[in-house]
Design goal:
The complex is a heterodimer of chains A (about 425) and B (about 575).
Chain A: H1 2-21, H2 24-29, H3 41-50, H4 59-68, H5 72-100, H6 115-119, H7 121-130, H8 133-140, H9 145-161, H10 164-177, H11 184-195, H12 205-233, H13 238-248, H14 259-264, H15 271-283, H16 286-292, H17 297-311, H18 317-324, H19 340-364, H20 369-403, E1 417-419
Helix pairs in contact in A: 1-7, 1-8, 3-4, 5-7, 5-9, 8-18, 9-10, 10-11, 10-12, 11-17, 17-18, 17-20, 19-20
Chain B: E1 24-34, E2 40-50, H1 68-77, E3 79-88, H2 93-96, E4 106-113, H3 120-134, E5 147-148, E6 168-173, H4 180-188, H5 204-207, E7 212-223, E8 231-243, H6 245-248, E9 254-256, H7 257-261, E10 274-280, E11 290-293, E12 299-304, E13 307-315, E14 331-334, E15 346-353, E16 359-368, E17 375-383, E18 387-398, E19 401-402, E20 407-411, E21 420-428, E22 432-442, E23 458-460, E24 464-470, E25 497-503, E26 507-509, H8 519-542, E27 545-547, H9 554-566
Parallel strand pairs in B: 1-10
Antiparallel strand pairs in B: 1-2, 2-8, 3-4, 3-7, 4-6, 5-6, 7-8, 9-14, 10-13, 11-14, 12-13, 15-16, 16-22, 17-21, 17-24, 18-19, 18-22, 20-21, 23-26, 24-25
The chains are: A mainly alpha (about 425), B alpha+beta (about 575).
Organism (chain B): Amphilophus citrinellus
Protein name (chain B): Phosphatidylinositol glycan anchor biosynthesis class T
InterPro entries (chain B): PIG-T
Amino acid sequence: MAAPLTLLLIVAVTIRAALFRSSLAELIAERVEVVSPITAWKRGKRGWSGGLEPPRPTPLIIYLFHFLVDYAEITFMVSRNKRSSLLETEEFRKQKFALEADRYPLDCLELIRSPKEMFYTPLKVAMFYLLNPFTILSCVAKSTCGLNNAVLALFVLSTIKGNVLLSAVFLCLATYQSIYPVTLCAAAMLYFMQRQFIPVNLRRASFWWFVVQYLFMFLGSLFVIICLSFFLLGSWDYLPSVYGFILSVPDLTPNIGLFWYFFAEMFEHFRLFFLCVFQINVFFYTIPLSIKLKEHPVFLMFMQLAVISIFKSYPTVGDVALYLAFLPVWSHLHRFLRNIFLVSCVLLACSALFPVLWHLWIYAGSANSNFYYAITLLFNVAQILLVSDYFYAFLRREHHLTYGLYLKRKDGSEATLVLK
Amino acid sequence: VYAAAPGTSAPETMVPSSVPQPKDDFQEELVIRPLHSGDIYASFQFRTLWDTDFMRDNKVSHYRLFPKSLGQVISKFSVRELHISFTQGYWRTMQWGQPFISSPPGAELWVWFQDSVTDVDATWKELTNVLSGIFCASLNFIDSTNTVQPSASFKPLGIGNETDHRFLRYATLPREIVCTENLTPWKKLLPCGSKAGLAVLLKSEKLFHSSFHSQAVHIRSVCQDRQCKTTSWELRQTLNSVFDLHTSGQGKREWSLFKMFSRTLTEACPLASSSKLYIDITDNSQGEQFELIPATSLLSQAVVLGDRRTFSVYDLTQETTFGSVRSLNLLIRWKSSECDMLRPLLHAERYVAGYGLQTGEIHTLMYNNHPYRSFPVLLLDSVPWYLRLYIHTLSVTSKGKDNKPSYIHYEPSKDRVRPHLLEMLIQLPPNSVTEVTVQFERALLKWTEYPPDPNHGFYVGSSVISSLVPSTVAMDTNSTQERPLFSSFFPCKEESSYFVRIYTEPLLVNLPTPDFSMPYNVICLTCTVVAVGYGSLYNLLTRSFQIEEPNPGLAKRIANVIRKMRGVPPL
């Protein structure tokens, strides 16, 4: 296990180093799919050397960058590798837990994963993340997305390991950088409650006591970090500058998300209304998903991360790579997936067409913004299909685990399952 | 208004009241300078001096030579200095030399307010709207997105101690077009209007048929005497034009007032204390280049733009100038066409480099043509917010080597609130080109923020380069002495250099545009994608798996219905 992992790490580092040194690094750093106004290194430098205006990336990140500016490459690569190793250990834990539950009907034995299969899952996760072209591009572009991903991975690791305080702290760091990870609170709380055998019952006092504890830790560390930023910068201007920027979307630079063209073509009268609708859209899946998946908090975390990556205001391919890296964990669901071929073809085609249509619009002048917008739409539809497909497969597997794999109808013939 | 008898000079008010009316004085002059490229540069200056105090509590109500509209503007908005110019065309320094007063293409307005103003931004907004009405120009487009507060350039040209740059506002509208509607109210501000004096030459069909046309109004306080115990308000109206040889002449190099302006001079303005016409004959000392008809014996020398120039003077207040035909049609007949021009010491250019609609680079080149002296220049750049400057890519190089500016003031922009402001003090080495480059990124705007014809591009205002250029002759530092108007505009603090302000070209930059025909389509399509996400997740969250009863075919169903009616068991 260690040897293939080391080999993988070496390959990943080599690829990144090679790309850093080549002339492609500057080209990649300018690509709008890879960097967004929040994550761009160039904007961060501008913010730092300008000195006067609160920068868009959060203040702590700017100060961190200032000290790490000479070691940026190594830092990014280290955080990449660290992140992948976190995912591996997390998966080990998860699989052990799944193995201990042996309350499934006998014919579902083939649905349960054997230790042999699960042995290679961490390596597959590492491979999915490190060798994903999206992450490579993100790393070479020196986007802060990598740091975001690292913090989220640390959060997932500390949650799985059962450390409530660390999980709250890392979640607070992730929320500090962009507001959306706050929805992962619910998933973390459900995981801890499951682990500590607290029943998820709204009428029980122990439930509320745990919720209060966790929220106290989360809000406390958030308060500490915000005050720290205030002392570093000397004013509160960074709050509207960073969070107001994420929520009110003033910058309409094209990216792979849905917001930019929508708000570029929006009638002024309806702007605030649709802004609220789109921002609420990210947050309001939390409660229904938590209710449905309250026994499966890890899958809930995956779903939340996916929803955030698709519907956030300034998505980049680095965010997409984050939840794509989780897919090997659920490789046992592939027999229930319905659209995987279509989705992967569409994702590949869109990834190839993004730079082409960008060039045609911006440089050749023979296409216009509609072409790039169309590919954006298609890419997001493909992501939505992917996520809902995995959700369907997961729910179906749970159904089979409860009722048996080979279901028969009343007359003894083979049954088909539908959602009703 | 009291009209003085024609022919008198230095008119004074004659109302016998207990309060002595403040003294006012009006002078007009026209300078014609034949340029080396064969064009003709005509510069009109009209100056009104009035010792009154607009800032005291009693409102000034008796206006004579000073226009009432501007007097009310000064007192209502507590203006200390006001400079506004409207220009059509770009001054070609390399072909035409230095102008007396330069101005950028479009409209430019800079104002110093008094210290008593509490809310400068609100006052500025009101002032721009009032001036927009006075000059029939669209100055109402001046708002916070194109106004800057320069910290070092645009120091007051009049007297004053306070130079807190919070009271200074500078804005430029490079897209503004100058036409007859702007000339007419400008002419109305003159005491004689366009009925008498030099202003009769200002006919719009000839003036706007020129290569360069610039009209400006400058208001400031000046000292009355050397000790500066009392001050008076000075209003200068300047109009600079460059007439093109080829469009105005018939190929013969012969100029006359009638050819240029389609009018001749018949009398001076009766309200003017001095009305003069200057022809620059420095290069024509022996009469070998051109010939002036009618000839004049009056000569005058003045030090202007660091050079001693000789002028033939026609005094319009004298009856003899007009001769027996009672009209002066000055004729300049060229004899030889060869000439060489002194290269101007300071010259600047600016352009945008790069390709595509994503990024670009602004290059500003400044030429120092002095053979052995270096001098500092102050460069002011105001770039709109939608061109996001990467200030860490700013580089200043002279002769291939890095030239670090001794003073940099940078105010970053804020989206839709204020533009970038960059001011630098750069030392230009002798006989060199200094290049200032900075990279920028182009923003995508909301579809309502594009002007009509968005693919024409967006204008970026000219850079302003202010400098003290070494002069070849000693300049006169006494500003209260009697001097021709064209040499007394810029205050002179030292003898060895003169102040010059030059403007570069404005830039025209294309931004990526969304498709303007698509708002409904975009809203529908994006909402569809969000609905697809919502729908899939809703289905999966609210429904559960059930075993499906197979649906029999249509034929079987109809058969079953018939069987039920017959009372027979179904298939």
